[in-house]
Amino acid sequence: MQKDFRGYPNRRFKNTMQMRLGTAFAFVLLALLLLLIRVTYINVTNGKQYARKVLSQQSFDSQTLPSRRGEIVDRNGIALAKSDLYYKVILDCKVINEDKDYLEPTLEALDTIFDLDRDKLRTFITDEETRDSQYRIIARMVTKEQKKAFEDYKACRDEESLKIQDEEVLKALKKARYNIQGVWFETYYERSYPYDSLASNVVGFINADGGVTGLENYYNSMLEGTDGRVYGYLNSELEYEKNTIEPEHGRRLVTTLDLNIQQIVEKYIQEFNDTYGDEDSNGQGAKNIGVVVMDPNSGEVLAMATNTPYNLNDPYNTSGLYSGAQLKNMTSEQYSDALNGMWSNFCVSESYEPGSVFKPITVASALECGAEYDGDNFYCDGSLFITDTTIKCDNIYGHKDETLEYGIVNSCNVVLMTVASRMGITNFTNYQQNFGFGRPTGIDLPNETAGVIYGRNNMHEVELATCSFGQGFTISMVQELAAFSAVINGGYYYQPHMVRQIQTADGSVEKSVDKMLLKQPVSSSVSALLRRYLTTAVREGTGRKSTVPGYLTGGKTGTAEKIDPETGTRAGGKYLVSFIGACPMDDPQVVIYVVVDEPNVYEQADSSYAQVLFRKIATEVFPYMGLYPTEEVTPELLSFLGITEADIVTKRDPNKKSATFDAIDSYGYYHTGCYVNRDGKIVGSSGDEIAGAYIAEDGTIFDAVMNEVGHVDDTVESEDEPAGAGGSQIGTDNPNMASPPSAAPEGEDMDGTIWSGVTGDDLDEFKKD
What are residue 458's phi and psi, to 5 degrees? Predict the structure, then answer.
């Protein structure tokens, strides 16, 4: 430090130094102030732009975390509908155009990893109209592996970069790839259907707004989840932070469907189309075909199919049903109708006159209300005159003397009209409603039809007569299934349903959907009688062609004469034929209902089309379900059915050694489905020994009251075909039959206990419990 002549510090020098320091400090303060002003200006004018750039560099994907739509699986957990995680590649042109060095490295990366056209991308990025675009989807269905490959490429972690040994070269490469900007990823879930068209009319599909058809529509609110969100931001210290709200994924539906049974059903519907379809019918074997397989003891639907399946992954493609020329000539309205027709589920949404498959319900109702008794006798001369109208039987020459049982076996209209007359209108309409007709079953599928039936106030003698054998009112397939199941299962009416369990996204059970018993329209004793009648109908009557060799089946044919919608009168020559059957009839485990609406043949009025389709399906379904053959198979039966031993099931239950028979025990109880087990004991269908029954030394089987009921080596002998029963029900034109009412009668209570499916409110209650 400088000093004056006395040795003291020079004051002038000191003041000068202080002034310099003050000036420097003021300059620094001014610089900081200007910098703060500049930062504030940038934040206000370009803050979002720089934030997006920073977030992009931080591998920030999206502010929305999409929820995953719940799976739909069959009863064994096989996925019928699922949602897989993918990424969209998003391009931010504005960020790329901030620096001319960003363009080429970014294009190179997109071309290398995603094989995108760099020339088209360059045009889009640099074009005046799109250069400021900040959100452009340039690729979809990008996998997690592809996303990681892009990120590794950008960070020089890819295979080629890792091979570089020269530090300077690697440094230059990293610098170049740092300029890959304006590309980010957005997660989303893509809905897919692994089996394409399988169970398409049941599963349904979705669009951008949610479920359109089937279970996807009915359970849409459960399958949909709630999106999560990521809040990404720069904190006060310019550090990247984020706050995440996780998405809540949709629930998982475990359906009652069995994939294997569904495949069997659809295979034989397609075979029917291949056999009877032609160019004029667009390959369809009938106007409509519906098949439903159901457990009669729970209402669980095991399979449901129509002849209009469609690819759930391409639901707007109608080429399977219409030719290119037909599609080209369609108006937009016609195309819309074609789509709705393809998507519609005939088994649930269409109503029709059932025909003779309704006869077991009429007979069961008459027995229950006391209008008829087992063994009652009738006489059929081919027609019956009701007030001023003659109504014909299927056999115009008459079945002559018949019992109530053979009224079912021969499908005799005269017997059924007589039965209904003895019941009266009030009883008949009451039992129709008790069996669930005229109202939806409440099955958990959209667009269920209720059908239309007569009520007490608008039904008269002619309507009563024709309704007794299934003409003059309309039903749906699921209504008939539920009612028929009640007839044969002991009298219990279970609600048909498609979903057996609701699970959380991780597979935890949230709700088990138990079988729902709604009522018991008839007693177990009446049900036992109907099982016997229906078994005889297959063994001896109109249902013989439905016989599944080796199995104790029973069922009923149907041949319904249709109405011309234009004239409102019976359309001669147009029929809906059907068959509904169950197995085993001593303890029914499965019901199969087949409807063939206007088969593409010259003579439609032949229920054998439905019967043969039933038999082919049942021959594969029964053994799959663990049902063993119990009945002997004769060459005569195989000849009648037109099949060989190679076409039948031969695997037998090791616990059963003989054909079944009926027997009375020492307490006077009557048992059906009895057999000799491998221990040589005579047991009933439940496996309990029949008290008092025994086997003589020559192998003859006697029950407790000395009836000879069989032989341990017996085979079922071929029986002569009864007169008028040609192995199938053949329709007879009946122009005087009543037509269905146009709507449900006013003043009639058609409401019932109907399950509308599990709802979100239900699940909230389940959680509380």
Answer: -125, 10
